[in-house]
Write a structure and sequence with these properties.
The complex is a heterodimer of chains A (about 625) and B (about 250). With about 625 residues, chain A is α+β, with helices and mostly antiparallel strands. In chain A, strands 1, 2, 3, 4 and 5 form a 5-stranded antiparallel sheet that branches. A 4-stranded mixed sheet of chain A has the order 14-13-12-15, sandwiched between helices. Chain A has a 3-stranded mixed sheet with strand order 6-7-8. Chain B has a 5-stranded mixed sheet, sandwiched between helices. Classes of the chains: A alpha+beta (about 625), B alpha/beta (about 250). Chain B: InterPro entries: Ribonucl_H (IPR013520), RNaseH-like_sf (IPR012337), RNaseH_sf (IPR036397).
Amino acid sequence: MSVDLSEQIDFIGQIPPFDQLPKTALVSLVSLFSINYLRQHDSLQTAFTSARQCGVFVVVRKGIVQQKVKGAIRSKYGEGDVIVINNVDFSNQQKSWLVDQDSLVYSVPLNEMKMVLADYPDILSHWLKDPNQRIHDSVAAQQLNELSASPLNSMTVEEFAHTPAATIAHLESIQSAAIKMTELGYSSLVITKQDVHVGIITDKDIRSRAVAAGLELTTSVNKIMTTDMLTIEAEQIAFDGLLTMIEQGIHHLPVTKSGKLYGMLTLTDLMHKEGQNAAHLTSAIRKATSVSELARIGQMLPQLQVNLTKLGIAAAPIAKSISALSRGITTRLIQLAEQKLGSPSVPFAWLCAGSLARSEQLAFSDQDNAIVYSDDATEADKRWFAELADYVCDGLNECGFIYCPGNIMASNPNWCQSAKQWQQYFEKWVSSPSPQALLNSSVFFDLDVVYGDKTLLLNIKHRVLKMTQQSTLFIAHLSRNAIGNKPPLGFFRDFVLISSGENKSTMDLKHNAIAPIVDLARIYALALGIEENSTLERLQAAKGSHILSKQAGRSLIAAYEFLIQLRLELNALQIQQQKKPSNFLSPKDISRLQRSHLKDAFRVIKELQDSRQVVY
Amino acid sequence: MMNLKNFFTPQKQKFEQQRQALNEQFKDMLAHTLPDEDLADLETDIYAGIRAYLSTPLPDLTTPLIELPMVAVDFETTGLDANRNKLLSVGCVNMLGNQIKLAQRYHQVIDVEQQLEHDNVCIHQITEQESQQGESLELVVNDLLLKLAGKVMLVHFNKIERHFLTKACLHLYGIKPPFVMVDTLLLANQSLRKKGFIIEPRDLTLKNLRQRFYLPNHTAHNALGDAIATAELYLAMMSQRDLTSLTLKDVI
């Protein structure tokens, strides 16, 4: 038979992962499709009831289909979107797929599809696996993608290795190893026996296997070394070294040349190549003597963020690094202010709120901060704090952390207050909550100390967490605010379908997808008394509790990881194109695969928002 | 505009009676065309199609559309005149009720044994080389009749398919079988006029009608692609009506 069905084959072949399918397999698959024209309000379960035993795979060719769960619209499917209706879904009264705009749909019973794709289990499982699992896998694939674009691909290990590797004989004591490491400034040593390398020890081994285990300092190093030491050959490409380290979760990799020890490769070295590394910047920040010097370092953060992204490092650790540098800059600014203004007579603490407090800040974020000082502060002290606040907030702005549009800054007198006043603020927010007030203050429920007396905040936090756990009204108001911010329903061609039924050309990735998860995590934390600030840690801690099932928690974590990774990639692209990073994402700019993952993420968010609605 | 009425499958036309009569008339003659049993596996039985078509009852006029077995068919030809021009390719796909079954499809280019005019090559996009690699008219019509036996044809502008297929049957078998055709062009013309639209001939092309019914842009210019496009148009048009209460009589 000649090549026919070309239109249908082109259409299906564009939908990932079918774009990976060899032409012959694609033709066999498309040959199985049936075409239906469904009218508005038709139910897909009814239309494909003949496939109810095995389930059905449906592709929207034209029109819009919506999924409803318990009567509420969960998701919308447009041209090129895939709907998998499993056999259990056919008897599920709560779940339905209804035609929203007359639709032309292609379909194939799942058992037939399984047969024709038997040789392509990956493609088959992409569609058959739980959508939540799909997000998990996509996060890993995202990072791999970035990795393969790394310049490390064109360089060898030899170009990065320190030579010679620092070694120590296997019968030397742990103490002499520690002394040698300290003198050299190295965090690892290769252990040799008659000049042959037999193992490795790191800072961590000395800490966990020697000190924590109570070993004598005179114990020989071979007692605590790692013997099944991984090595890499000098002529291998540097990228392989990076992959090995990331996979194994190690930071040091001894390098061999023709099997003989040659040198040492560290993760820091590889990252250094990619530009300024975080460790280097940290020490530069500590040594800075003026605001303008700090501002120059601040300007490097966007590029650092791009480099880390390109290295394939996951989004959460990147945000953590950027946050750490942001804290470093803040600390240095305060020290510079103290050099200029002297010191106050009472203890105080510089607080960060919002994303920095959650260690989720990225370059180009705005600043959210506050000051808490001892109740004994004098009028002179208060003037001092006001001056400090102006100095630091102005400095941060110069460093690229722009003024907070909502004026949540220490320079705002409302947020430069005594411990007693802060305690009153929180008591008011929690015990007599109003939705509007909570909207403005929720940023303070992510609060952390950057500099100063930590106990000033800790005391308040403990009391607040006790109160929030008991105040169902407070949690209810917070929930209502959080679920008001709904993620989009899906995509239609190059438009974003938002909950109100409108189409928009872009979506706000931060506001409409990431923030709802951050909000949910905060609610779980406050309701359960979880002390952690970061979204991922909060979700980890809340998962398996009575308000967040293990499975739902896992899905939400995966969705969050996917979204922040996507945001980081979006920002990296914008920074490279010399544009100011924004969180507005146009469906045009992402692949079809990313679109479908995004839809999976939206669905997870909506499911959990809906369940908050049920609880309150 | 041509008088479209000439191209209706006349309701009064007793196609099933015609089929029975023809079957009676040619039964004996066609019986001789059965291949010898010992040669059955070696030779293509090129009369199987016409025998099957004439001996299989056609659907009753009262068959509900939801149960009606249909084949969407499209021909590519070297021109519009069945007496002078030739059939170049045949495409068809089965439909059952409101579903198009891509698994049951057929597409074949025919070797016309003549030079193709450049102008037409642009339209049907079948090159001379492709045509030469095609099958003989005999084999293709035989295949097609096997698929049409007992079924109703769905076409867009039935003049082409009716004339070229009738002509081919006369040429190959000396028989003029009755073909039952549902025509999307005629259906659209009727229903749009009934709704008060002023319809010009160009509104009734497959492309423009698909646009009117918000179907995806259709670009393929091969017979199977057009047959599927016609079938989709039919489903879109009929979606506004109730297929369970309508019968064949309502659409021919």
